[in-house]
Design a protein that fits this description.
Number of domains: 2
Strand content: 15-25%
Catalytic activity: (sulfur carrier)-H + L-cysteine = (sulfur carrier)-SH + L-alanine
InterPro entries: Aminotrans_V_dom, Aminotrans_V_PyrdxlP_BS, Cys_dSase_SufS, PyrdxlP-dep_Trfase, PyrdxlP-dep_Trfase_major, PyrdxlP-dep_Trfase_small
CATH superfamily of the largest domain: Type I PLP-dependent aspartate aminotransferase-like (Major domain)
GO molecular function: cysteine desulfurase activity; pyridoxal phosphate binding
Strand order of the largest sheet: 2-8-7-6-5-3-4
Bound molecules: 4'-deoxy-4'-aminopyridoxal-5'-phosphate
Helix content: 40-55%
Shape: globular
Keywords: Pyridoxal phosphate, Transferase
Distance between the termini: 34 Å
Organism: Ferrimonas sediminicola
Length: about 400
């Protein structure tokens, strides 16, 4: 491992076990001790419900929980803390948007553009809302290299485009979308823009104001935080106009049997007791990322990716998928004549954890003419030695299967 990140590994208790080369970080990352401790501390010393208690412990829990919201705000450079909504993850963020924004906005014949890299979490909620409203869900096609076809995208944008939903980093391919080009074009067409940042947050610095999108979503568990917590950031003026997504306690100001008044932002979108410990864990995970040497992290991740690509290129029958150009954090591959699941099982037997399947991107797999793939994906704690261990296991497997 390159020197500046060498110390990281010891901070992750789950990595401290024999025969584990964990290269499935795009599915979920391991958690550093400080995240585990923060959550433990909450339950051991601060546990109370938030926002409505008249007692000291509730006040402490509220301050710690709301402190996590402040952390998210500064991490993504959101203009206001009220614009940061806690959800269960990217999937819930997308469902909230499709249901609340979609029902408020969409008319028959309206168009929703979505990239072909999109995760099912982005596709299905909009597909269902399109079916209910008579809107159309239109995919942005790929070039032969698996990049987004920008000419086709420009041609698709038009007066009927209401929503453009873009994946910042593809979980299946590790490709990075040229958001600096695509978002201004969507805005110029008058569309509302949504960015799925699930695979970006652990790897890239995020500034929603510089990006210039209307909504940004991510999951805690993919950036060293716990499961069950995620974020939807949105522009205040849009969030104000949108109806609530779920109803119940916390999200109301006043209730009678005749009707209810809803709470102000962000609570209007946070019905029920929130995932308090998880939000606190997420805040700690973002603090962990903030303290990383970003330049060193980038150099390290580039070194890991270059090593794995060069190693795969040297193995007969192994092909990186959409591996030309830049891949960030994740790389899919296949082995000629072999099912991806078999390769995954054999790698697991060699102590290497990778992901195999359609990666919740069936339309992408169809576009690439694949049933599925194997995928390696990296986090800050992975080492070049682990890449070498993976490559030598893959070499042995392909030689064994070739016999
Ligand atoms: N989008 C992308 C790009 C993802 O990688 C994932 C998780 N694989 C999701 C959305 C959904 O995230 P979650 O399951 O945490 O809600």
């Amino acid at each position: 491992m390159s020197a500046p990140l060498y110390h990281l590994r010891n901070q992750f208790p789950a990595l401290n076990q024999p025969d584990l080369v964990y290269l499935d970080n795009a599915a979920t990352t391991q958690k550093p001790e400080r995240v585990l401790s923060a959550m433990n501390r909450f339950y051991r010393e601060q546990n109370a419900n938030v926002h409505r208690g008249a007692h000291r412990l509730s006040d402490l829990a509220t301050r710690t929980f709301e402190g996590a919201r402040d952390k998210v705000q500064s991490f993504i450079n959101a203009p206001a803390r009220e614009e940061v909504i806690f959800t269960r993850g990217t999937t819930e963020s997308m469902n909230l948007l499709a249901q609340s924004l979609g029902s408020h906005l969409l008319q028959p014949g309206d168009e929703i553009l979505i990239d072909t890299w999109a995760h099912h979490a982005c596709i299905v909620p909009w597909q269902q809302m399109a079916m209910r409203t008579g809107a159309k869900l239109i995919p942005i096609p790929l070039t032969g290299d698996g990049d987004l076809d920008l000419d086709a995208y420009q041609a698709l944008l038009g007066p009927k485009t209401r929503v453009v939903s873009l994946t910042q980093v593809s979980n299946a391919l590790g490709k990075v979308a040229p958001l600096e080009v695509m978002l201004p074009e969507a805005r110029a067409a008058g569309a509302i823009t949504i960015v799925d940042g699930a695979q970006a947050v652990a790897h890239l610095e995020i500034d929603v104001q510089t990006l210039g999108c209307d909504f940004y979503a991510f999951s805690g568990h993919k950036c060293y935080g716990p499961t069950g917590i995620g974020v939807l950031w949105g522009r205040r003026e849009l969030l104000e106009q949108m109806p609530p997504y779920q109803y119940g306690g916390e999200m109301i100001q006043q209730v009678s049997f005749e009707g209810s008044q809803f709470n102000r932002l962000p609570y209007k979108f946070e019905a029920g007791t929130p995932a308090i410990a998880e939000a606190i864990g997420l805040g700690e995970a973002l603090a962990f990322i903030d303290e990383l040497d970003r330049k060193a992290l980038q150099a390290h991740e580039t070194a890991l990716m270059e090593r794995v690509k060069a190693g795969m290129a040297a193995l007969p029958g192994v092909e990186a998928i959409a591996g030309r150009g830049h891949n960030l954090g994740a790389l899919s591959f296949r082995v000629e004549g072999e099912h991806h699941q078999d390769i995954g099982i054999l790698l697991d037997q060699a102590g290497v954890a990778v992901r195999c399947g359609h990666h919740c991107c069936q339309p992408l797999m169809q576009a690439l003419g694949l049933k599925g793939s194997c995928r390696v994906s990296f986090a800050a704690y992975n080492s070049l030695e682990e890449v070498d261990a993976f490559l030598s296991a893959l070499k042995e497997i392909t030689e064994f299967l070739d016999d």
